[in-house]
Write a structure and sequence with these properties.
The complex is a heterodimer of chains A (502) and B (98). Chain A has 502 residues and is an alpha+beta fold. Helix content of chain A is 38%, strand content 20%. The mean pLDDT of chain A is 90. In chain B, helix 1 crosses helix 2. Chain B has three helices and three strands; from the N terminus they run H-H-E-H-E-E. Chain B has a domain at 6-45: Histone, subunit A (Orthogonal Bundle), CATH 1.10.20. Classes of the chains: A alpha+beta (502), B mainly alpha (98). Chains A and B meet through strand 2, helix 2, strand 9, strand 10 and strand 17 of A and helix 1, strand 1, helix 3 and strand 3 of B. Strand 10 (159-163) of chain A pairs antiparallel with strand 3 (88-92) of chain B.
């Protein structure tokens, strides 16, 4: 059970300054593994994507995946890193069943990418400059499932089952320098940083970047020091934070926990902490100890990677537009205000709106639909707006139907209902549901005559010059035509019928 | 380089999961000290301007294309395992997280 006492975040902030650091592991989406030609596929039957190398059998030799090296360099370039002209692999040695060789092949002294930076923009536009210490290549470990016991956690487990499909999957570990000065924005910055890394690797096309699949994983380092103190406090490293919200919550929790520990006059234990999504808290893993003596040494079976300037420049030339720059460009193109654009980004609808505009809608119409009716329905259905089932083509077609006068805004929402219920394209839904605006003046005239006869006093008022009273008659007509009339045309016809100038 | 002592050997043995008797620790401390001394003479020969050698042969960039090769069947993969269950390797529960 978690019996940690914590301070309120506000009180923690009054007394201490948080310092952060992140290690983000990115799984590359190469077809094969880092050092073997076994397939790199998520979600297959256990131990079906393994060969001798992934299992660490005696006498096997690893061979580096060139694509994985190039993906690593691309990540480094996107993070403004220097690319090492000469880098080597090293063995990181520890005993644990997820690593059948009893070492993980990684990089130590000379990572392929180093000394980079990335500017992180928070939701309100505040920018933090985060420095990247290094980004190095390594391999993922196998997956353990703890069996027995009651909790499904390792505590109380009787034994573990190991699947080595993930063993040897290429990883790039991105390590920041210490991040100071975030203050009370620290939890938010943590979330935004991981989101930015995820966005960058997805945009590069080098990773599937799904946190729920473990493609992007974050270890968050947190320490506190009293305001004004230069010396860094003792840090803890929280693992298993595998969603953006969890990153934010875990950093916030650790700040509050550290503050309570320090307040009670006790020193922070340098240790690994485990994040628990269910209790929204961390528990102690193990203290840093002798077991952390990994005895790195150069991997004798892998020769150094030498990157020529020509190779690096060739890769640099393939870099896509960075996400942050793309956002600036799109906002300018679309003419959205800062607030409008931020709402679009936060709703995760930038791609959809871009595609909708490319398909022929105006920027205003694309925003109106995605941020309005579609977002509203997505919220009701508790799904992402992009996953609701409305495509840019649907939005464009509905807009065209409105522009041509075939339907009005009210009918358009019914058309959307039909599309979402699988009745076909907007045009097909209009035909099937008979949703077209009643534009036959004869049919409208009948409805108008009836409405006027039903409300003779109102008709009299209008004749007497109270033109604003026409709304009541328009309402009556719209009711009779079940919203399928063009309200503007109805108004015209009513005034004409009564011989009044609009 | 400081001489290697008995405590260092005991520490290394623990890290490497090698059980050693007191007598073995004594003997290895002496033997390893000789080896460390020998290595030290290499450090003396190389000047500060000579980078550490990670590989004895001047070979770089041995890489393969990203093309899927062979895999083992589950049966083959598990054939050398001391214990298996449900298509997976069965291992004792180890509380220490890596």
């Amino acid at each position: 059970m978690n019996t940690e006492t914590i301070l309120s975040f506000e009180e923690a902030m009054e007394k201490y300054e948080p310092v952060l650091g992140f290690e983000v592991h990115v799984e590359l989406n190469t077809k094969t593994k880092m050092f073997s030609s076994a397939p790199n596929v998520f979600g297959d039957e256990p131990n079906t994507n393994v060969n001798e190398v992934c299992l660490g059998l005696p006498g096997v030799l690893p061979v580096v995946n060139k694509k994985a090296v190039e993906s690593s360099i691309l990540i480094g370039l996107a993070l403004n890193c220097k690319i090492a002209p000469h880098s080597t692999f090293a063995r990181k040695q520890y005993f644990y069943p997820d690593t059948p060789k009893n070492f993980q092949t990684s990089q130590y002294d000379d990572p392929i990418c180093y000394d980079g930076w990335i500017d992180i923009e928070l939701e309100d536009g505040t920018v933090f400059h985060v420095e990247i210490e290094r980004a190095h290549m390594e391999e993922d470990a196998g997956k353990l499932t703890h069996m027995g016991g009651s909790t499904g956690r390792i505590q109380g487990a009787d034994f573990s089952l190991v699947d080595y499909n993930r063993s040897g999957v290429p990883l790039v570990e991105i390590v920041t320098k210490t991040i100071e000065g975030a203050g009370s924005r620290a939890p938010e910055l943590a979330k935004a940083y991981v989101a930015a890394i995820r966005e960058i690797v997805k945009n590069l096309g080098v990773s599937e970047a799904k946190m729920e699949h473990g493609n992007v994983r974050c270890d968050a380092n947190v320490s506190l020091r009293p305001h004004g103190q230069e010396k860094l406090g003792t840090r803890t490293e929280t693992k298993n934070v595998n969603s953006l919200r969890a990153v934010e919550n875990a950093v916030k929790f650790e700040i509050q926990r550290h503050a309570a520990v320090l307040d009670s006059g006790v020193a922070i234990t340098q240790e690994t902490r485990h994040w628990h999504e269910d209790t929204k808290s961390t528990t102690s893993g193990r203290p840093k100890s002798d077991a952390d003596d990994y005895r790195y040494f150069p991997e004798p079976d892998l020769v150094p990677i030498v990157t020529s300037a020509a190779w690096v420049e060739e890769l640099r030339a393939t870099l896509p537009e960075p996400p942050a720059e793309r956002r600036k460009r799109l906002q300018a193109d679309w003419g959205y205000s800062d607030l409008e654009f931020r709402d679009v980004v936060n709703a995760g609808l930038m791609d959809e709106i871009e595609e909708t505009i490319a398909a022929g809608a105006t920027a205003a119409a694309a925003r109106k639909w995605w941020m309005g009716e579609i977002a509203r329905r997505a919220k009701l259905a508790d799904v992402d707006p992009a996953a609701l089932g409305v495509t840019p083509a649907v939005v464009v077609e509905i807009e065209k139907l409105i522009a041509s006068g075939a339907i009005n805004d009210k009918l358009a929402r019914k058309v959307l209902d039909g599309v979402l219920e699988g009745e076909g394209t907007p045009t097909e839904v209009v035909a099937k549901r008979g949703l077209a605006v009643v534009s036959d003046d004869g049919a409208l005239q009948t409805a108008i005559d009836e409405a006027l006869a039903a409300q003779p006093d109102v008709a009299e008022k209008i004749r007497g010059g109270k033109v604003q009273a026409v709304g009541a008659i328009v309402g009556g007509v719209m009711k009779v035509t079940r919203g399928q009339a063009d309200a503007g045309r109805v108004r015209e016809l009513i005034l004409k019928t009564l011989g009044v100038e609009g | 380089m400081a001489a290697i002592n008995r405590d260092d050997v005991a520490h290394l043995a623990q890290l490497a999961h090698i059980e050693m008797s007191d007598e073995e620790l004594d003997r290895m401390a002496t033997e390893l000290a000789v080896i460390v001394d020998s290595v030290k003479s290499v450090s003396e020969a190389a000047g500060a301007d000579v980078p550490a050698t990670s590989h004895p042969i001047p070979l770089t960039n041995v890489m393969r294309e990203d093309v899927v090769g062979h895999v083992l069947t589950v049966e083959e993969a598990l054939s050398g395992a001391p214990d298996a269950s449900d298509g997976r390797f069965k291992v004792p529960a180890i509380l220490e997280e890596s």
